[in-house]
């Protein structure tokens, strides 16, 4: 209880760095801000027991659309009429954009009982007519999405897998017309923002003619952030860390934007005006909360650099270690003026998602209590670009595992004080590693872990199985993929008699596994079965090595996959770590 009270006190003292703001409404002369003030607009009043994910405004600001989700990850679109002060909902809507006309919007619809959207509809506000189906994919390996160009001329319909992208265009002022397919994509080919054969290029079209306006070869780790009149903003990753680059489209001059030279995360801000002379973005680091910045295209200067404040007394180190001949970046955040009492290793390595060096308030609490944080940017993530992800998919998925050599070479703490955390697909990596090296971690946390990809991918009715074929392989049609998944599955490879090399000072092994019955992405039963088998396996280890083993199992009934990463659950994890390390 003392630890819980101390943790609660810590969180209450921290600055509010995650406020939602509509400040940009001050910059545009519309009735929108007046409507908000007049109505004292509150989405929670209209969407009870739902979380509002996105707000979209009609061109003349007479209507607002709200994408919301409930505890079952079932989404809906709520449309509110400011003039009539009325609202209604459309169910199973994953995303939506307004067309160029005030009374028409376009939305994507989910399959009943599944997560992925597969249809695109046109809806007229307030109409009793049936919504018009304008696009559909019948292949379960694809999902659809919609967006609108910055000049509001075209609606883009995206047909995606995890590795490819096709785009159709619809005239935003005639949204009922048949979408025009730009081209059929090959694996790994993107349009508008293209990664074809290692090239990066940005193209534009008037429906009849494509023109490449910028290209660079090779840029495997570039990401388009913003394209404004005469200016291109993109990020290029240097040793897994993003740097913001400005390209003058007339002179093709490239400028690396001045930001603090430490591992960080850069996020695009609100950039509504296509002809603006500046670009808004957010910068943050593991010890600095997010700071809104503005880059001026003319002066080449960045505003608010002086607002970067290190609110955590810690230092950031970067190391490169080698897994075979592959160089793997590692970010280490170490507390200052504190004796190092342990370290928490974090890794993900899946779906091309990078492990960002961003600000996390729960890490601040651990740092202030003498624990260091290590981020291993392993293969399978997007930390070093597309090829980094592709080097750890399907038959090479084993490459995403955190190797024992990588951790030892870092020497981030003593052998008996190393802790680890794997979240969702990151739980796959840590679960497999713990089967091989049960003494590696003094404490290991697995939050809603993905522990049996073999069983999930064999079930074609699972909400994400077909989408994950490109990541893990297709065991339903490929016998080699099936055998590979059996060998990799943490659940199927728990040793009956657990063995391993015990460090002399280690007295216990502590595992905390959390999951939810309501999780639509990760199977609750797999986590429960892993815990039961792990307890039996570690019991034999406890007898042979005289090391106490504890496997704590915490499950919830109504939390969604995202809810399991709430600040209260993270506070519980911190308490677990500090308690087991005898703080």
Automatic annotation (TrEMBL):
Entry keyword Hydrolase: yes
A GO term, aspect molecular function: serine-type endopeptidase activity
Pfam families per record: Peptidase_S9, Peptidase_S9_N
EC numbers, comma separated: 3.4.21.-
Peptidase S9 prolyl oligopeptidase catalytic domain sequence ranges: 359-533
This protein's record includes keyword Protease: yes
Sequence ranges assigned to domain Peptidase S9A N-terminal in this UniProt record: 91-303
Keywords annotated in UniProt: Hydrolase, Protease, Serine protease
Domain of life: Eukaryota
InterPro entries assigned to the protein according to its UniProt record, in alphabetical order: AB_hydrolase_fold (IPR029058), Pept_S9A_N (IPR023302), Peptidase_S9_cat (IPR001375), Peptidase_S9A (IPR002470), Serine_Peptidase_S9A (IPR051543)
PANTHER family xref list: PROLYL ENDOPEPTIDASE-LIKE, PROTEASE FAMILY S9A OLIGOPEPTIDASE
Sequence similarity: Belongs to the peptidase S9A family.
Record-given protein name: Prolyl endopeptidase
Species assigned in the record: Rozella allomycis (strain CSF55)
